[in-house]
Amino acid sequence: MYVELKNINKTFGETKASRDVCFSIEKGKLIGLLGPSGSGKTTILRMIAGLEHQDSGDIFIDGKNVNKLSPSERGVGFVFQNYALFPYLNVYDNIAYGLKVQKKDKEFIKKRVTELLDLVELPGIEKRYPDQLSGGQRQRIALARALAPNPELLLLDEPFAAIDAKVRQELRTWLRETIDKIGITSIFVTHDQDEAIEVADEIVITNLGKVEQVGDPVDIYLHPKTPFVAQFLGKSTIIDNYDNLKGFDSIGEGTKAIIRPEFIEIWTAGSKSARKYESAYEDGVIEQSIFRGNYFEVLINVNGIKVKANSPLADGPLKAGEKIKVLINQLYVFDEEKTSIIANKSLDESNLYYI
């Protein structure tokens, strides 16, 4: 493994920012540190960079224990959330800053800056100043500056947080392609699950200073191992009395269920989809319908239980009070320790799986 964190602990006053954090990263991978605000993800990033020092535990980069190394000795490039470009330096000098610190000669610096401006697809703007750039351009220049000294590890703290939605979407694709092109091991912090799922090779999910789950984005989404992960990912609705739903029995006292929109099929009079398992359908009433651009998000009352589902544009808008049929294929059921997947027993008699 190229980066390894072993039993990392960090406390700020009475706040436990990291609780026995352990995970490892293969060389060349792009890793997303994902979690809500205050979950400890930025603290982890800063400890890897050497900007914070752990109270206990070990950090290894390329097999070397870096606990006692300064940030400049760790071979790490860091892109800050606010870009941290020097406002009084033009683009050329911002990118060249780290190379000048390394005392590289002028010809080398000129060649390297030109290469990086081509890499980030912004050739010819070297004389501009940061306040003359858009948010997306500043982010690209910040990345170019971090890459200039040829770091072995790239760290990005909320790289798209200060950018508007449309540009953020474009930059996600661009970052993924750029990282693939240069092949550098990279870790980025985000609280946006769509961003992590779309961009990262693997995700490390954090909560209250501890690592909840590590793995492939698709596998984590489909197979959450802890109650927190099951609730955090997706557009989840949490219900108590899930055994009131057709096809489901309670698996234990104190358990609750999570329903995601993709677990639900709906059928209306105008629906173009065919009904299967008709006996398993519930009667539901539309309470709210919200147009989301390429689908309708609907809030449905099913026997007093409110769930969210997605309705395709082809079926047209649904109105409050409209009666529909609802099929819930599966649930995530959880207690304080574990999460289980339960399939609707009307569809599959082997209904309980532990993950």
Description:
The chain contains 8 helices and 20 strands. It folds into 2 domains: 3-223, P-loop containing nucleotide triphosphate hydrolases (Rossmann fold, 3-Layer(aba) Sandwich), CATH 3.40.50; 232-354, RNA polymerase II/Efflux pump adaptor protein, barrel-sandwich hybrid domain (OB fold (Dihydrolipoamide Acetyltransferase, E2P)), CATH 2.40.50.100. 24% of the residues lie in helices and 33% in strands. The chain has helices spanning 41-49, 91-101, 106-119, 135-147, 165-182, 193-199, 217-222, 227-232; strands at residues 3-12, 15-25, 30-34, 56-61, 64-65, 76-79, 153-157, 185-190, 202-207, 210-215, 237-239, 256-259, 264-267, 282-291, 295-302, 305-312, 323-328, 330-334, 339-343, 352-354. The protein is of the alpha+beta class and 355 residues long. The strands form 4 sheets. A 6-stranded mixed β-sheet has the order 6-7-8-3-9-10, sandwiched between helices. The protein has a 5-stranded antiparallel β-sheet with strand order 11-12-18-19-20.
Summarize the structure.
The protein has 355 residues and is α+β, with helices and mostly antiparallel strands. It has helices at residues 41-49, 91-101, 106-119, 135-147, 165-182, 193-199, 217-222, 227-232; strands spanning 3-12, 15-25, 30-34, 56-61, 64-65, 76-79, 153-157, 185-190, 202-207, 210-215, 237-239, 256-259, 264-267, 282-291, 295-302, 305-312, 323-328, 330-334, 339-343, 352-354.
